[in-house]
Amino acid sequence: MPRAAHKTPRKPLSAYLLDQQLFVLIFGLAAFSMIIPALHSGATRSLETSRAFFYTGLFGVVIFAMIVIAQTGRTPRHGVLGNLMSIFATFVFLPAFLALPLYESLQTTSFLNAYVEMVSAITTTGATVFDDPSRLNNTLHLWRAQVAWMGGVLMWVAASAILAPLNLGGFEVTAQAEPGQRESRFGELDRTNPREKLMRIVVALVPIYISLTLLLWVLLLISGDPSLVALTHAMSIMSTSGISAIGGLEASGSGLTGEILMLLFMLFALSRLTFSSDTVTATQGGIQTDPEFRLGIMIVLGVPLVLFLRHWIGAFDVAAEDDLGLAIRALWGSIFTVMSFLTTTGFASADWAQAQAWSGLGTPGLILMGLSLVGGGVATTAGGVKLLRVFALYLNGKRELERLVHPSSVSRAGKESRRLQSNGAFIAWIFFMLFAMTMAALTLLFALFGVAFEDALVLSIAGLSTTGPLLSLATETPISLAELGPYAKSVFCAAMVLGRLETLAIIALLTPDLWRS
Question: Which of 371, 405, 366 is nearest to 387 (CA)?
Fold first, then answer.
């Protein structure tokens, strides 16, 4: 007689949720963090807003305490893969809780709009449903920036503790991901308990993140920004979210000095080596030999130079050629804006309009979208394809051109390419194709739900690259999220989560090991 098929028992959903201890911890921290906007709104006499944050935070703390009691004595069974699921749950389910005080404070918007706003913040996308900044009070602006700031520090920690051990998030193209290369100076960390490793990374990185944010806040204050504006901009720069309490930098009191300070702090989004050497993306030569940092600087200097020289090549506004001040402002506006969109922050310089007029570009949307697609460094808060993958494809293209000229030549692997595994370009190309296919699918979905094709493409790129300000700068007419239908907003939320976690990580979550009892 045939043997009866063996059926793997499935655990109940409640038991599975109790295994996600990292998500429960993040939920608890988010609940406790609501005390900050509650105190701020109380100090500014916005009592309705203060009560909304206080009661929601208290409710969250109670739920957190109950879950912690239920988790007592339980040991997570999925290790790093379970932590990846917790990060996914943080981006999908936690915004529903974070949206409660926003929804209760406004009372003039739908809960879906509040949810979209919080997904945009925690994924560091920075797109907003509220086109008019005056519609939100100061506390709600602070809350948006704070949620994005927390999402940024989450990605800093998750890169080392979760994505690196799973060879995801850009680590898949490094030599560490190659068979036989697992043992390195990080081998001791790899053998430690995932919880101990997570705590060690938190202790190492969170103080750096907080210190850099406070330093930028103080510098912007000294430069002339009001306290709230300086704080939201400092949080937005560190998290690359591009959230502003005043709708941008045009009305900023810090002016050119503030933009220079912001640009310097955006350097932390070009390479992990600018603030840490805790991952396998590190090189022995330091930041000077880091290919991500060098490629990023090359783009930041090269693209503005081309736009600047186009003034004479295209013979635009020839009468202004003798105005040195106008030329310097145009060049600076290009440099700052290119850096901002390359790091997927999305702030436009106050001189960006002057840069457009100087170069003769009416709507440089393709340039901004291209920069956002390239993105910043691996294991930073920046989104996009990432500079390391672009560098891997560049090395492979360079090698193929060499073989056309010298078919029998032997590749010269320098220090810059030693951090990449032998088939790193192939893996980078696979990711790029998955990224392109996802972008095409999202564009079709947006078009299906009534969005014009050009707007659908911009929405897809803005979500996948986590560069929300593209919605207002990449097209002649700004795209309003509030005017989208509920299905289109839901697709945009999915695009932001996909862009933040990346497609390979979502595929990793489909492994049977995670769902098997």
Answer: 371
In the beta sheet, which residues pair with residue 174? Answer: 420
Q: Is the dihedral of CA 252, 257, 263, 264 positive or negative?
A: negative
* Cβ 335 vs Cβ 304: under 8 Å: yes
73 to 16, 18, 283: CA distances (angstroms) = 15, 11, 41
**DSSP symbol at 465:** T
pLDDT confidence band for 516 (50 / 70 / 90): low
Q: How far apart are CA 379 and CA 177, in angstroms?
A: 15
Q: How many Cβ atoms from other residues are within 10 Å of residue 53's Cβ? A: 28
Q: What are phi and psi of 174, to 5 degrees?
A: -85, 165
Residues 118-136 have pLDDT tens digits of 999 999 999 999 988 889 9
Q: Which two tokens stand for residue 21?
A: 């201890």
What is the C-alpha radius of gyration for the chain, rounded to an integer number of angstroms? 23
CA dist., res. 501 & res. 499, Å (int): 6
pLDDT-based confidence at residue 282 (cuts at 50, 70, 90): low
Q: Are 4 and 512 in contact (CB under 8 A)?
A: no
Q: Please report, to the nearest 10 degrees, the dihedral formed by the alpha carbons of residues 178, 181, 185, 186 taken in order.
A: 50
H helices of 19-93, where?
21-33, 35-43, 47-71, 79-92
In terms of Cα–Cα distance, which of 272, 452, 476, 511 is closest to 366? 476
Question: Closest by alpha carbon to 174, among 299, 283, 271, 267?
Answer: 283
Give the chain's largest Cα–Cα span: 94
Does residue 319 have a pLDDT over 60?
A: no
pLDDT score at 13: 44
**CA–CA gap between residue 100 and residue 53 (Å, rounded):** 8
Cα three-residue angle 120-372-341, rounded to 5 degrees: 85
pLDDT per residue as tens digits for the range 428-448 = 999 999 999 999 999 999 999
First and final C-alpha spacing in the chain: 28
Q: 420: helix, coil or strand?
A: strand
Q: Per-residue b/e over 116-127, b at no fewer than 16 CB within 10 Å?
A: bbbbbbbbbbbb
% of the chain with per-residue pLDDT over 70: 84
